[in-house]
Amino acid sequence: MKHLLTLLLLTIAAALSAQNLSGYWEGKIGITKTDSLTVGLQIDYQGDTLYAELDSPDQYFTGQPVSGLTFADSAIAFRVPDFGLNYEGTLSADGQRFTGTCTQYGRKFDCTLSQGATRKLFPRPQTPTPPYPYHTEEVNFRDRSGKKNLIFGTLTLPKEQPKGLVIFISGSGWQDRDENIFAHKPFAVIADTLTKAGFATYRYDDFPAAIFRKSTTYDFADGVRLILDSLSQRADFQGLKVTLLGHSEGSLVASIVAADDKRVASTIHLGGVAQPFEEILLYQSKAILRVSGEMTEQEIENSAAINQRIYEVIKKSKSTDDAMKRVGKLWDELSAQLSDEEKAKYNMTPGNKFTAIQTFSSPWFYTLFQIDPAKYLKKIKTPVLAISGEMDLQVNAIATGNNLNKYLKKKELLSFINAKGLNHLLQPCITCSPDEYGHIETTIAPEVLDIIVTWLKFHNP
After folding, report:
1. In the predicted model, what is the mean pLDDT of residues 400-417?
2. What is the pLDDT of residues 279-309, one digit of tens each?
3. 209 touches 244 (CB < 8 A)
4. Tens of pLDDT along 205-237?
5. How far apart are alpha carbons 157 and 168 in whole angstroms?
6. What is this structure's pTM?
């Protein structure tokens, strides 16, 4: 019996050591008691080496490479440095699941990964893939002190002499150089299109996280000036006209730079901003709530009235600290007038308060309330192409067009297009809510790409 037991144990050990882990493993991370996030791990063998990619289907991204993957004695471990995430788990006796823990920035979450699920892929037919018919170059810049790495980006160069240089500026929130959102890479698509049409392009990641958290729209504008300072010194760019292409808040950054920098020959606004920040936020909240069907029209107006009171306080505050105190006081006054049901409906619960105050009083958020786009638009004397989505629920296309026409001094240089049936990302849409962005295969409507190329060629003969 002893020999039989030893043989049985050796057989199990051999089976585990030879376990083929290749395939797709999926599970959920419990973020809160009521909220979870689906994660997936695709494992393959490259020779005798394990290779894996992390997916987050709920966030529409796939294929994030993992590092340090190890598997020994039924224990698996790996990390994803870009997300500050580590995973440690143990394989079940039947080899069908890993039971373990995800750790991210000090927080621990239980996570079981099981085999058998189908990997969810999100077709993005417009995303360019190598080999490219043009040259790409990694170009990075330090800050003005020369001590810190600040800007990391990709320069694309056509094989022939470029017709011009286009610098990309992303929208609100931290964005990578492709402006990656829901597995779409709009900046990569536009850069690919423009380079094939004969233009050089430069797109870059937003500032490193620690710097980004303390930065404002004005800092982002200074980052563009730093790029202009550096690229203008290249021998192959001498004499080239420079165009700034900004999406959403990026268009405001472009306007700030173009207002007083003679090196900017033209600007392109995609889903652009030409209204005060509070007007954008009020429009956005109403428009999205209406298509969601979660509130009656009266409730939407009530919610907007609460937000407007808060925005007025932020705008009148003298500093971020002052904004924090004023918003906190107003929050207590407003929530005291609401029932528990209304607090939940309007996101005015005690639990919402801390997060809201931290956001409202951040340097970036506070500064946006102090910026009047008209101040900069009035100073622009170079050609402007503005393409807005008729169905944009985040920025009011009609208000954008009206304000550009109102404030630009040389109106004959404005080309404004209110693109029919397109959303804030300039995708063809149905509900046009941000919830739909990831379900749409088209990254950016082809007609928008054609308009940009045609306009640039006209202004860069």
Report:
1. 96
2. 999 999 999 999 999 999 999 999 999 999 9
3. no
4. 999 989 999 999 999 999 999 999 999 999 999
5. 14
6. 0.86
- Alpha helices per DSSP H over 232-269: 249-258
Cα dihedral angle (439, 443, 444, 445), rounded to 10 degrees?
-60
End-to-end CA distance of the chain: 89
d(C-alpha 268, C-alpha 404), whole Å: 12
Q: From CA 388, how far away is CA 399, in angstroms rounded? A: 10
Structure tokens at 423: 């959303």
List C-alpha distances in Å: 337 to 47, 146, 282, 331, 332: 66, 53, 21, 10, 9
Cα(59)–Cα(220) distance, rounded to whole angstroms? Answer: 26
The angle subtended at Cα 164 by Cα 159 and Cα 170, nearest 5°, is 105
Model confidence at 31, pLDDT cuts 50, 70, 90, reads confident
Say what the pLDDT of residue 4 is: 36
Sheet of strand 165-169, all strands in order from the earlier edge strand to the far edge = 135-142, 149-157, 200-204, 165-169, 242-247, 264-270, 384-389, 414-419
Task: Indicate whether 32 pLDDT > 90.
Answer: no
Number of H helices, E strands in the chain: 14, 17
For residue 219, give the nearest of 322, 377, 358, 367 by alpha carbon.
367
What is the per-residue pLDDT across 86-116, written as a single tens digit (0 to 9) for each?
999 999 999 999 999 999 888 899 999 999 8
**In this structure, what token pair is assigned to residue 398?**
């009609």
**Residue at 267: amino acid letter:** T
Domains, in order of start, for the chain? 22-115 (2.40.160.90), 135-276+371-459 (3.40.50.1820), 278-369 (no CATH)
- Count Cβ atoms below 10 Å from residue 164 Cβ, excluding itself: 20
Across 121-263, the runs of DSSP E, i.e. the strands, are: 135-142, 149-157, 165-169, 200-204, 242-247
Q: Is the peptide bond before 131 cis (omega within 30 degrees of 0)?
A: yes
Output the six-digit token pair for 417: 């297009």
Torsion of CA 219, 225, 227, 229, to 10 degrees: -140
